[in-house]
Design goal:
Length: 184
């Protein structure tokens, strides 16, 4: 399975980067998973600048063509997403909106973080978007409350519950990816 882990925040000093590194390290412990970590801060997609609707796949910009190839090659997606004002980050929305068919019938899981809600409200808002793109959400989601104090020297320390749920997420992504593959 080719797993894409997308870091949904581009803010300097963001907590999402160490959380994504934790997700990546856990996924790397499993056999049969090839990982592509996408840091939206490094990807640097401009605000949607394509003249045609993404559904048509008539891309004109080199950055869109490269993003399209990268997403098309993924079998499953984990979105490491913050909660911004009861929603999700604009950088993540922009990255999702650049494409359409490339997301179709790919399983998606959420590792969210925020304050008291653990990013849940952002995931609720994001669920509508991934559904519109034809993605299929896993049943398990990791929700991390007050993550910033648990990052020391750039390393996130998950608790037992978060680690167990991430295991369930990874367990679910493989079979779901296989089941959905013919529909892509």
């Amino acid at each position: 399975m080719r797993l894409m882990i997308i870091i949904g925040s581009v803010r300097p000093g963001r907590v999402g980067l160490p959380i994504a590194r934790w997700v990546e390290s856990v996924a790397r412990e499993r056999d049969g998973i090839e990982i592509d970590v996408v840091d939206l801060a490094e990807l640097g997609l401009p605000l949607m600048d394509e003249p045609n609707h993404p559904r048509l796949q008539r891309y004109t910009k080199p950055h869109t063509l490269a993003w399209s190839r990268r997403v098309a090659s993924a079998d499953a997606i984990i979105l490491v997403t913050p909660e911004y004002n009861y929603s999700y980050s604009p950088a993540l929305k922009n990255a999702l909106d650049y494409l359409h068919r490339e997301w179709w019938r790919k399983p998606v899981a959420f590792v969210s973080y925020g304050g008291v809600s653990g990013g849940t409200r952002g995931v609720v808002a994001l669920t509508v978007v991934v559904g519109a793109l034809g993605m299929v959400r896993t049943g398990a989601s990791v929700e991390i409350n007050f993550a910033a104090p648990r990052v020391q020297d750039g390393v996130f320390s998950p608790n037992e519950k978060e680690s167990a749920i991430l295991g369930h997420v990874l367990d679910e992504l493989g079979p779901l990816s296989e089941a959905l593959a013919p529909l892509r």
